[in-house]
Batch of 2 targets.
Target 1
Amino acid sequence: MSQRFDFSVNGKPVSVALDNEATPLLNVLRNELGLMGTRFGCGLEQCGCCMVLIDGEPVKSCNRDVSTLAGKTVTTIEGIGSHERPHPLQQAFLDEQAGQCGYCLAGILISAKALLEKNPSPTRKEIALALDGNICRCGSHNRIMRAVEKAAAVMRAGERA
Ligand code: FES
Ligand code: FES
């Protein structure tokens, strides 16, 4: 028998009916809500490409049961910016061409956003630490680090303006 699960995604309330309360959030996002930006990689909390924010904290959604989300706020890559109004991180990643295949990037952008919310002026070491749970198989790490630094500078300048 199916149960309903209520939480919010990208600022909107959602209510999904599922038979299995252990259904991973990642499956709910992609299969029930049509939000395809969050990716499946390993399914074992190893790669980080399924990263989302839950109440502002970066969480790997491939192993997060839907039953734990009552009243929680989930933010996916679709919720941080759009083609028309990219987040400074998204713009910096484009400017720096910080990626090759792009498969890892949604997860990396989510982790970077969580970092910059807490720490607007991270050092390289702090950026590396914040992205430690995200694997980029294309080896774009240098450009990714540069893009995060650039976005942080743009966001700081925006706050001063
Ligand atoms: S798919 Fe979740 S960490 Fe790899
Ligand atoms: S850009 Fe290909 S895995 Fe990171």
Target 2
Amino acid sequence: MKTRNILKFVTFVSIFSGCVPVSRESFDDELSEPVEEIIYYATLAGSSHNTQPWFVEIVNDSLLYLKADFSKKLQVVDPDARELFISLGAFIENFVFAAECFGYKADIQITAKHKNDTNVAAIYLSKAQRSNYDLDQIKNRRTLRTPFHNTAISKEHLNNLTHNNSEIVYFPSYSEEGKYIASQTLSAYICQVKDDQAKQELANWIRFSNSDVEKHRDGLTTSEMGITGFGGFFVRNFYKPEDSMKDSFINTGIDKTKEQTENCGGWILIVQNEENPENWINTGRLYQQLNLTSRDLMIGFHPMNQMIEEENFEKEVNERLSLPGVIQFVARIGYVENYPPANSVRRPCNKIIKYTEKNVK
Ligand SMILES: Cc1cc2nc3c(=O)[nH]c(=O)nc-3n(C[C@H](O)[C@H](O)[C@H](O)COP(=O)(O)O)c2cc1C
């Protein structure tokens, strides 16, 4: 008992002094109902800049409404809310898997028709047999920003990832298309980091200090961005989010992005035949499935959407690749030997769950 208290004290002092980053494990939120646990697992989905643009309204045990939180929309890089709806799709995918584990079937009815619809989906829950889906897959899924091996993904693994879904396209990094995507991603990234508005928007979601992480529990932290060791300690303690707009930080980011685009086994693109919330949500569900499966195969997964976030690039890339639909999502993938634990933080469930008045908790 004494040793545990000492350990707790040491952890507290280390976090307090910025020696170690605040991680997901640093938070211990109480969840009282199975539905809250299901929602917790759903929130472990990825979202652009880790904005977590969701609310859940619980009407009763068998009806919930998923809502979009437009205050979290990235106005500059995501003016049409495509990435916001993709993030909500990823949330839904996690929700369905988690519900099955807790002995529920979740029927999803998408209600969003327009890009500014707050009401995203009605979720109907009914009792069902518990599945033996491993919830750790949801817990361990993460975005990985380290360099990957350049070896192409094997046919077998590609089948495990994509299930031959025609909305998912893969190009190995050695292919002409793969090289083209790598160069366009880097060029679009450079364009973006030189744009004052995009820079400011990113700075608004950067959480360098441990106190900022604890306060917001969203956005991009040092450990998520891969700023580790002494560099991480320094940035956590002495950098402000605005420092991410300085040339030195930007140039390091460009070097890192170049390294990332040059070190991967290939690129995954998700395409849809039409731009609308339902298709974006479907894209988000596919992205989440891919990322959930990739870890078991020791395949790193890194969304890199810059070339479709930048208008000039998006049009040209779609024309040049001429795929069976419009590109909605881009990710770099590749084999890795090291898959560190998931480290992005999440807001507490009580901040996103609302009980309807009749059913106040
Ligand atoms: C629609 C969407 C777009 C994203 N775009 C990028 C991107 O361009 N670059 C990047 O490094 N990460 C990107 N991400 C990954 C998020 O930053 C990441 O999901 C979030 O920070 C939470 O981290 P996690 O995935 O490890 O849980 C994207 C995620 C989503 C859902």
